[in-house]
Amino acid sequence: MDNFDTPGSPRDAALLPDTGDPGFGVYVHWPFCAAKCPYCDFNSHVRHQPVDQARFTAAFLKETAAVRAMSGPKTVTSIFLGGGTPSLMHPETVAAILDGIARHWHVPDGIEITMEANPSSVEAERFRGYRAAGVNRVSLGVQALNDRDLKFLGRLHDVADALKAIRLAREIFPRMSFDLIYARPDQTVAEWESELRQAISYAVDHLSLYQLTIEEGTPFYGLHKSGKLIVPDGEQSAVLYEATQEITECEGMPAYEVSNHARPGAESRHNLTYWRYGDYAGIGPGAHGRLTRGREKIATATERKPEAWLEMVERDGHGILDEERLGFEEQSDELLLMGLRLREGVDLARWQELSGRELDPKREEFLLEHKFVERIGNSRLRCTPSGMLILDSVVADLAC
Description:
Elements: E1 24-30, E2 32-33, E3 45-46, H1 53-71, E4 78-83, H2 91-104, E5 112-117, H3 124-133, E6 137-143, H4 147-152, H5 159-172, E7 175-182, H6 189-202, E8 206-211, H7 219-225, H8 234-250, E9 255-257, E10 260-262, H9 269-275, E11 279-283, E12 288-293, E13 296-302, H10 306-316, E14 320-326, H11 328-339, E15 346-347, H12 348-355, H13 361-369, E16 373-376, E17 380-383, H14 385-389, H15 391-399
Parallel strand pairs: 1-4, 1-11, 2-3, 4-5, 5-6, 6-7, 7-8
Antiparallel strand pairs: 8-10, 9-10, 12-13, 13-14, 15-17, 16-17
Helix pairs in contact: 1-2, 2-3, 6-8, 11-12, 11-15
Subcellular location: Cytoplasm
Family: Belongs to the anaerobic coproporphyrinogen-III oxidase family. HemW subfamily.
Protein name: Heme chaperone HemW
């Protein structure tokens, strides 16, 4: 087994502590990938000609200014460069985007700045360039730790590439996470437990562990519908999920959200902003945002097609197609939906303020009695491990 100990590496550098506030995040979407994975329904696009990064950078900066005009002055608590494959960007592109964000909002030293990266696009020189630009956390799309399943998932890297990327990330960035997909066809519980323990031995402080889902519009959807792709049924998926929770808990990386696991203090600040129902700016093709104006919350969504977004920004100053004003009931439903994903649960006073009502005592009592939810003191409500398995039903029951 590889030895990933790197004493004195920058991964121990201190970041600003998590205060528990929802915060204000900035999400930047780079929509391009080297290849489209057969399970992926994200807004990602393959281009066989080089992308004009200078032109896209100018558009990102222009849209940043437009979103700043909508949000007003804010202090940024996290920045996330997602995609697509942001690690296909030149370090100069990343630096320009981060500098543009800092020109329009207050960006304190020590906030979390995350970039997603695929192992197949990782180079040490490029990683060092991202670090110099200000990125202090990288999230690697590893997805599996055996070459057979990496090929099945359509990944361009093999296990050797993945381990090289993990090693480089640990050497160069203060914080690092990587993703795995489980509940793959024919995957046994024993195989997953072995792979998960291996992953934990490579991880620094954070893992994202997602069950394979079949999304409409993907190649996997057609294969699944025709019976050529069989995934674990509900009962087997539940067993795999429970094994995941048990192992990560024992190894000191418990779930702080349905699919995300971290050592205490290493939780993703940016994703916590989503789950705590904070505000975030969405910049780039297909990006979504939530911006509060007084007691009003605006949901924004931009044009998904990269070239159409680019032309729209150059013409109009932004690529925003939709600005939906969310009523208090919609906001309270979103708060419940997001907050119950978290181990820390939902702030009931905040939910009651938004919804203008209290939880239905009969519905809550039923869920408490069957141990699907539990109270944390008098101020918070969270799902139990059993409740997490039927999260959508719990949310629907409480929101009625």
